[in-house]
Amino acid sequence: MASSESAGAKRNRAGIYVPQSAGCRSFIPTPLPPKNPLLDLGNPELLMRLSSADRAIGRLDAATELLPNPDLFVAMYVRKEAVLSSQIEGTQASLIDLLEYEIDSARAEKSSDVGEVVNYIRVMNHGLERLDELPPSIRLIKEIHEILLQRVRGSEREPGEFRRTQNWIGAPGCSPSDATFVPPPPQEVLRHMGRLEEYIHMEDDVPPLIKIGLIHSQFETVHPFLDGNGRMGRLLITFLLCWKKILSRPLLYISYYFKENRMEYYERLQRVRDYGEWEEWIIFFLKGVRETSVQATDTAKNIQRMREDHRALLSDQTRSSASSVLLLDKLFEHPFVSVKTIAEIIGRSYPAANALVSQLEELGLLHEVTGQKRNRVYIYKPYLDLLNV
């Protein structure tokens, strides 16, 4: 009998399912932190994962400080995260599509998918700037959600406003009665988001990375918007890492880990709701923090080495080393260029820029991607290869 009661208590740790008139059961989450019992910090695997994640994210923060211009690295990582996070939601835009649009927005075709990625970048930059004056809150969440859905898919679904109708998660075309998961009814959303905001600002002894994992899960469970909840939940992770000063720059993007482990990600979240498996979710989350941190740290170190190697190569092998090194630094900011853009960067004529392009092609640094004879566009391929795009 005792074991049955214990199992029932654990099952209801995250909340309960409540029947609704639509013939479904919606989930009503219990406010954070988890209780009955409290999150088990005596769990050996959880403690090991927490220690490993803390060390990895600390090394990432230190490694980026050694880069000559960390902000250029950040800018490319923000782009990469925007693409990956949007791809999880079904967009087809690639980083190359985004860079092509950025270099010539008037000429490049801006698909709805590219628009979603562009908005994600705007939201990331806007949110990080706003954190200096407005801490994570319902107000900030609504503000960035409105930007996220401007003039893209979902723009008709009340951007910047909590939902006023029921939503659900399941196979395309399913109804609430046969959905995989039905979040709280609309009249409950504001109350639960208010409780989540209180928890974000609650002073407690829960380790920050664990707390961020709890917050992400709870946000996805409440599912407060009609569209964009997944992207908003992943953005919230980055905002909290920077707000809590765990990272000095927004360089931990866990979307790749979630994308590569998509089925387990959804299953772990659902098992929190169904069985109260908070510890298992947190272990999965911390594993992602560590893996993502290690990947970003390795990339930062490799970029630093590559930059030094390529600067030395250009100084030795090009006829105008000053112009080529100047161009190289700009390529780290935006590795997608035209000859016209290169001429503007180095302050030389079009023929001089074209000659420099030919030299960099021969050295394997630039790669032409249009296949055209005119209006040709080049990528700094070794850099993009390091970013695994």
From TrEMBL:
InterPro entries, alphabetized: Fic/DOC_N, Fido, Fido-like_dom_sf, Fido_containing, SoFic-like, WH-like_DNA-bd_sf, WH_DNA-bd_sf
Residue intervals of the Fido domain: 136-287
A Pfam family it matches: Fic
Record-annotated membrane-spanning stretches: none
Protein name (database record): Fic family protein
Gene source species: Oceanidesulfovibrio marinus
